[in-house]
């Protein structure tokens, strides 16, 4: 542990690039202290950030190497739910600091890096927690859900979208204001990433097509997309390889590079944006079909793209 702390302090203070090395030592320390303040001694991969919507606030909480957990807070009641709490201590600390009422856990799928903190959170959090999910392999599950099941977080509505493929029991959660007005948010786990999608571990191209191009595409374009991992730069590099003439991809890469240079998260995007730059949501487009071998069937295109991405080196 002591050696780890030493290594971390050293890594914070060493020169990362020539711009910083070229500055005065005091400036260098100032820049690095700013970074330290943002990511903390825990060495998180990204900064904690709040996204404010009309009816809710979404707190982005980084975990593990590149995972994201999310705290969804209802503005009216301060009731909260947490998505994929793999780091329960950070969740509890944040909930206590913000004086929130946490009573729900939304699990996207059973993989350890998403559901692996459920049991510990239930144990540490002494009040009652409803643990939602679509798969019996999820720890501490007590509210099993399927397509179109709904529940509330304070005054917010949550609708479940069953999106099997990455895993058979994968659920995406669409959260909207009680009156259905204003921007909504969707928590997509490892089904839809910014610029990409999850591997087809337990499903088929037909199922991913249904998830991305039927269910998630049907949400309003303004819906904010909060996905399970910080994979944007890797995914966008593949997107550019598929559609080199798509300018929105290049622009997003430039933007994401700036964000990542200061360890800021690149989430959220929106459903409308994903339709513009995500090749897996663009399998109807002639440019994407041509890249994937020329078949005009979007499902064949989906399968070919995923196979190519599985072996793609950014
Ligand atoms: Zn997964």
From TrEMBL:
Cofactor: Zn(2+)
Keywords tagged on the record: Hydrolase, Metal-binding, Zinc
Family annotation (InterPro entries): Clx_II_MBL, HAGH_C, Hydroxyacylglutathione_Hdrlase, Metallo-B-lactamas, RibonucZ/Hydroxyglut_hydro
Keyword Iron in record: no
Residue ranges constituting the Metallo-beta-lactamase domain according to the UniProt record: 66-229
Catalytic activity: an S-(2-hydroxyacyl)glutathione + H2O = a 2-hydroxy carboxylate + glutathione + H(+)
Broadest EC class assigned to this enzyme: hydrolase
GO biological-process terms attached to the record: methylglyoxal catabolic process to D-lactate via S-lactoyl-glutathione; RNA 3'-end processing
NCBIfam families assigned: GSH_gloB
HAMAP family in alphabetical order: Glyoxalase_2
Name of the molecule in the record: hydroxyacylglutathione hydrolase
Species in which this protein is naturally found: Drosophila guanche
Taxon lineage: Eukaryota, Metazoa, Ecdysozoa, Arthropoda, Hexapoda
